[in-house]
Amino acid sequence: MSRDTLLLGQTLCFDGSPFELGLGAARHDARGGILIRNGRVLETGHGAALRAAHPQAQAEDLGDALLCAGFIDAHVHYPQTAIIASWGKRLIDWLDSYTFPEEMRFADPAYAQEIAGRYLDLTAAHGTTTVCSYGTIHPASVDALMEAAQSRGQRLLAGKTCMDRNAPAHLRDTPQSAYDDSKALIGRWHGQDRLSYVITPRFSPTSSPGQLSALGALWAEHPDLLMQTHLSEQLDEIAWVRKLFPDARDYLDTYESHGLLGANGLYGHAIHLEPRERDRLKEVGAALIHCPTSNTFIGSGLFDMAGLVAAGQRVGLATDTGGGSSFSMLRTMAAAYEIGQLRGTPLHPAELMWLATAGSAEALRIDAHVGTLAPGKEADIIALDLGSTPAIAQRSARGDDLWEALFPTIMMGDDRAIRAVWIAGRKVSGKAS
Ligand code: GUN
Ligand code: ZN
Question: Does the CB atom of residue 320 touch ligand 1 within 6 A?
Fold first, then answer.
């Protein structure tokens, strides 16, 4: 058994969702501590008390930094790392001009390995300890990311993107090969260490009805798995879906009628929903994944966070790298705040922090393992520097309470705000304070 670790600093714990419980869901201790044993949180509490009770633990004092759960990014495309921030296109043109040519490069497993490592380095530096990622159509793209996460001891969810139409020839599989390759990847990776496989049809425009049915059948064989896809992101896309599936009641029906709607479904974007789609998503208990920097960057629209959460929908938060314009969940929270403002429903910093940690964990159904600092959870932890730039520091110094001191970092912070990161209790990056 390795020696216990005691992290000391400000601590932020959530006992529930601030959307349901208000600010009482959050516990802040200006001199808190987190005791870690064998890669898991053993106890949180007052720093001095924990130190006195556990004198043998190796203490690390983070000073005024804010210790909280690592960020969980619920929808990303790691293969788009190198084309993030590509100019001037909307969704369909953006896919054709930038995304598909880049994803073709993943036919080379060495390139996939290079980007997988680069992506996990970049996200860790931004305080993200778990992502749920799309691969490309190449099974080796999933192997590369799974191997990279496994060697880092990191929790990861990922799947092979399936497409058999409306994509370049070299980026198309078939209904049968999508089923076979996905099934083989499930056998190879699902449940190994901290890794989970996610069944991944890209979206209805790039899958034939036959492919959607094949993946629906695969999901029925593995109902415990998550299934991720895109839903109602842009109006042009929705009009295209209507043409491709003239008999469907709406966009969601193209999934529902092929066995691809369920409680373990993750639907990225979900901006322009019809009343029936909202009702069905709520009824089955699916998760909607909000990708705010992507929605402004690609010009998709304004997600109805307040309305959807109030209606009881399950919602996670995500960058949607590289349609999203940042690897940072801080930037992502800022964009979610701004979209809330444009809709007249600003989000509180407690709600934003909860969404980026426990909320995404609940959406991904990994909240038994990560997302909070509760005893027994895997010790994926970050230390946020609340004065990481002169501009942030001077504003934060005016803050009378935690939320006022933290909000400038949410709005103006980036990887410079990430003082240190622990994955399963092991420090993976840190800066001199
Ligand atoms: N819809 C289908 N594929 C994609 C993608 O890669 N990014 C985004 N933002 N939307 C999509
Ligand atoms: Zn996406």
Answer: yes
- Place 79 in a pLDDT band, splitting at 50, 70 and 90: very high
Q: What is the mean pLDDT of residues 118-147?
A: 98
Segments making up each domain of the chain, as ranges? 5-69+372-430, 71-363
Is the pTM higher than 0.90? The answer reads: yes
| Nearest ligand to the CA atom of 232 | 1
With a 6 Å cutoff on the Cβ, whether 233 touches ligand 1 is: yes
CA 247 to ligand 2 centroid distance, Å: 25
Helix 209-221 vs helix 175-189: crossing angle, to nearest 10: 30
Sign for the CA dihedral angle at 277, 220, 367, 81 comes to negative
* Protein fold of 71-363: TIM Barrel (3.20.20)
CATH annotation of 5-69+372-430: 2.30.40.10
Question: Residue 128, Cα to own-chain centre: how many angstroms?
Answer: 8
CA dihedral 12, 16, 20, 25 (to 10 degrees): -40
Nearest listed ligand to the Cα of residue 268: 2
